[in-house]
Amino acid sequence: MKLKVNNIEFRYNSTPVLENISMELDRSEILGVVGPNGAGKSTLIRCINRILKPQRGSILLEGQEIKHMSMMEIAKKLGYVPQTASHTFPATVFDTVLMGRRPYIGWRSSKKDTKNVVEVLKLMEIDDLAMRDFNELSGGQQQKVLIARALAQEASTLLLDEPTSNLDIQHQLEVMEIIKDLVTAKGISAIMAVHDLNLASRYTDRVLIMKRGMIFDAGSPYDVLTPENIMSVYNVEAEVINRNERRPYIVPIRSIRAKGR
Amino acid sequence: MTGTEGEIYEEYQKYIGRKIAFIFSSLLLLILIVGISASLGSANITIWDAYAAILHRFFPGHIHTSWLADTCVWNLRLPRIMLGIVAGIGLAIAGSVMQGVLKNPLASPYTLGISAGAGFGASLAIIAGAGFIGGEYLIIGNAFVFAMLCSFIIVGLASRKGATPETMILAGIAILYIFSASTTLLQYFGEEEAVVQSVFWMVGDLDRASWSKVTMAGIVVAACVPLLMMKSWDLNVLAAGDETAQSIGVNVKYIRIFTMTLVSLMVASIVCFTGTIGFIGLVAPHITRIAIGGDNRFLIPASGLMGAVFLIGADIVARNIMAPIIIPVGVITAFMGGPLFLYLIMRRRREYF
């Protein structure tokens, strides 16, 4: 078992954000996490990475309780890709990716670390940007650099927090293709919060749909992204076109304002 | 490695090489400026006499010097120069680390109120005669204790839950105001002579230098700098944001407290001997970042050297511009640093702020 989340609960002060969340990740796959704003998608991803500490429940990473793991050990297994990043001071792409080697280095980087960064840059096809300033890159390029940094961590699971939300459609598709190819080629897994239901449908193997801090439904995109689920979770009337059986297309029609909310 | 991979690797090696070259050039510049500083003054000594006098004590059999040069350099000028080097290195590195750890280009020993705390402590000793340690070290001891008190407040805030770098900066500014007001109040009720003395104390200078002071400040700086350099990787990762740093395995809170404590100790042990020398901690890190980038592995040593060069240079100006009157070096650093800083932010604003 790669990852097992057992009944976790997370609250800010007394406001519950996550309740009774349980999920598993076993093989090399892409798990999409969808749901409206404030449903707890990002919080779940941060709890898994122990950036946030859930008050109850347990998270097992390759059989080990993450509470008892050091941050460096977690960083070697989980690579976090934030939605955006801006650096206070200029840093080159190379140095940004080299940060991902931190769990492996003492106070000097070795030749091996530098070579690993070169390989990752090459793999992500951003080697020509190596000496550019990260802050000057476009959103799509930045997202690739952030993925490259997670790869430099040699993590077996990538955690992505809405990686496509600031990108144009070309870069949305490009980033999704990259993640999909990486998962297949390297045999790793990815847990990804996504807003766009069609991207989730097209690129994920399993989907978890969240509503107000709880998992509303989970399964294949075909089973989860139904008009009924979309209505209950988003209050949106939607038409689902099953152009092919496994990957439905979702066409949102109108928003239904529920009473008292 | 394939062809292009080898190319990037080599390009990166060159990029690192340039940074190391910058550090060595700064070191040479520092040696040069120390020679110039040691040769200038009322007694006529050439720059070569100055170097010979310095080296004579290390290689007595090989290098010859005169009695005049030896006395002048070792007893009068070198303590001042050495205090300048120690203060320049310490303040500049403190500025670099504070800016990195608080992710704010405005952070410096001055803006965080540490200097104001030292100033209040000194004034309390000078005007009210009250202090923690008696005798010769009354003023210095007081300045040190109050500078550390400020640091403890800031670090204490940092260790509270939910504290952000912004709260630390704002707390520093609040402390700055509180201690400046307290100092003003003391001066308002103080006797004229004591007030003058406390005002002079606060304008930083190197006139009070002696070998024993250089040794005390030097030991603290020499102990803190390697410890800070060992954390340069974590400081680099911190620049990418707290969450990212945590996800890469860095204990953000621990690093923030650890480095801020060291930096405060270093600043306190410098300003208690020199008074407030502004702008070194702000300008030296920014100039260095523009030259070689923000990688703390190189930024920390390089900015330290730049700080020392800048402070010794300012001291040369301070001693000679109106000779024989010596202007406090704190005034010169502000006059030189201010316009320089303005120029830098006008030119490089987009990449920085």
What's the total count of β strands of chain A?
Answer: 12
Strand order of the biggest β-sheet of chain A: 6-7-8-3-9-10
Quaternary organization: heterodimer
CATH H level of chain A: which superfamily? Answer: P-loop containing nucleotide triphosphate hydrolases
Ends distance of chain A? 40 Å
- Bin the helical content of chain B: over 70%
Helical run tally of chain B? 14
The run of helices and strands of chain A is: EEEHEEHEHHHEHEHEEHHEE
Number of domains of chain B: 1
Q: How many alpha or pi helices of chain A?
A: 9
Total strands of chain B: the figure is 0
Task: Determine the N-to-C terminus distance of chain B.
Answer: 38 Å
Task: Please mark out the parts of chain B with pLDDT under 50 across 5 or more consecutive residues, or reply none.
Answer: none
Number of domains of chain A: 1
Average pLDDT for all residues of chain A? 88
Main sheet of chain B, how many strands, which sense, barrel?
Answer: none
Can you give the helix content of chain A as a percent range?
Answer: 25-40%
Strand % of chain B is under 5%
CATH superfamily of chain B: ABC transporter involved in vitamin B12 uptake, BtuC
Reported by name, the CATH topology of chain B is ABC transporter involved in vitamin B12 uptake, BtuC
Classification by helices and strands of chain B: mainly alpha
Detail the topology: elements first, then pairings:
The complex is a heterodimer of chains A (261) and B (353).
Chain A: E1 3-12, E2 15-25, E3 30-34, H1 41-48, E4 56-61, E5 64-65, H2 71-77, E6 78-81, H3 93-98, H4 111-123, H5 139-152, E7 157-161, H6 169-186, E8 189-193, H7 197-203, E9 206-211, E10 214-219, H8 221-224, H9 227-234, E11 236-241, E12 249-255
Parallel strand pairs in A: 3-8, 3-9, 6-7, 7-8
Antiparallel strand pairs in A: 1-2, 1-4, 4-5, 9-10, 11-12
Chain B: H1 3-39, H2 47-56, H3 67-102, H4 114-128, H5 138-158, H6 165-189, H7 192-202, H8 211-230, H9 232-238, H10 242-247, H11 252-274, H12 280-292, H13 296-320, H14 329-352
Helix pairs in contact in B: 1-2, 1-3, 1-13, 2-3, 3-8, 3-11, 3-12, 3-13, 4-5, 4-6, 4-7, 4-11, 5-6, 5-11, 8-11, 8-13, 12-13, 12-14, 13-14
